[in-house]
Amino acid sequence: MTVGFIGTGSMGRTLIEAFIQAGKLKPADILAANRTKAKAALLAKNHPGLRVAHSNRQLAEESPCIFLCIKPKEYRAVLEEIKDVVRPNQIVVSITSPVMIRDLEEWVPAKVAKIIPSITQAVLSGNSLFVPGSRLTEEDQEMLWDLFSTVSRPLVIEERHTRIASDLASCSPAFLANLLEKLADAAVEETKIPPEAARSLVTQMAHGLGRLLTEGGFTLESLQDRVAVPGGITREGLNLLDQDVGPVFNRLIRLTHAKYDEDVQQVQHSLCTGKKV
Ligand SMILES: NC(=O)C1=CN([C@@H]2O[C@H](COP(=O)(O)OP(=O)(O)OC[C@H]3O[C@@H](n4cnc5c(N)ncnc54)[C@H](O)[C@@H]3O)[C@@H](O)[C@H]2O)C=CC1
Ligand SMILES: O=C(O)[C@@H]1CCC=N1
């Protein structure tokens, strides 16, 4: 089956390469389209057999399953371009959290799903978040589940939890990388340890931490208890973090939700204004 990807930026490319790496899709199964053609052409060069569509419309005509890997503002233009050629038996998957399933279902007669991926899929790990639309059959859901199981742990979520689940699964790699960067920078500032050594130490620690939590039998709590020996040094640090860091994450979640609400409004406005019926 041909799987089409409209948008081969950061996440479109990550997904394409993850499915190829996992052996789930062959390059010849993939049809890609991107506004800047050179990006899609580079993918085709790196994965011989992968085809580049002349247009989004051609891609939509030829792909039983179409992934929309574009940003919220870009939906209107892409939907305008493909809506007349999309058929009811096709599947259209959006990877964009503030685009509502019901809006997509109004624009195309296809079977719609929202699946929010994560950069962690580049190493075939992490969760992908499934919000099935009303027209997907059991068979369609199984096909998508099977596809994403090869690169992630799929998880069904309710659409109203899209933002918070994306914060945890998709944004947090960036949030936690930022915290580790700050930890390494503070170490350099306070002790003059060479920057490369500080970054290497936190990076290798993060690798081990991920494995301890997923394969090592630890929970978030048991890991802290195991490292923080009673009366020891780690407990001093944990006490400070408990006091100062928790509120930062409350503020962070309020910020991501405020931006999300704004994006939802903008997308709905752009998808509803002047829409031909
Ligand atoms: N980057 C990440 O870690 C994650 C991103 N997402 C979502 O994925 C979506 C895409 O994000 P990124 O890949 O990071 O953005 P990006 O900006 O890297 O990629 C978007 C791509 O779409 C292309 N594009 C724009 N308009 C187009 C059009 N009319 N026709 C064809 N191609 C067009 C652009 O040229 C670009 O290559 C966003 O909605 C984002 O929220 C979801 C989960 C994780
Ligand atoms: O920053 C963003 O908008 C997207 C959503 C999830 C990850 N990246």
List keywords for this structure.
ProC C-terminal domain-like fold; 11 helices; binds (2S)-3,4-dihydro-2H-pyrrole-2-carboxylic acid; oxidoreductase; 6-PGluconate_DH-like_C_sf; 12% strand; Rossmann fold; EC 1.5.1.2; 277 residues; P5CR_dimer; alpha/beta; single chain; binds 1,4-dihydronicotinamide adenine dinucleotide; 2 domains; eight-stranded mixed beta sheet
Summarize the structure.
With 277 residues, the chain is of the alpha/beta class.
Describe it.
The structure is a single chain. The protein has 277 residues and is an alpha/beta fold. It has two domains: 3-158, 3-Layer(aba) Sandwich (Rossmann fold); 165-256, ProC C-terminal domain-like (ProC C-terminal domain-like fold), CATH 1.10.3730. Helix content is 55%, strand content 12%. It has eleven helices and eight strands. The protein has helices at 10-21, 37-46, 56-62, 75-82, 101-107, 138-149, 162-191, 195-214, 220-227, 233-244, 246-272, and strands at residues 3-6, 30-33, 51-52, 65-68, 91-94, 111-116, 127-132, 153-156. Strands 3-2-1-4-5-6-7-8 form an eight-stranded mixed beta sheet, sandwiched between helices. The longest helix has 30 residues, at 162-191. 30% of the residues are buried. The mean pLDDT is 96. It binds 1,4-dihydronicotinamide adenine dinucleotide and (2S)-3,4-dihydro-2H-pyrrole-2-carboxylic acid.
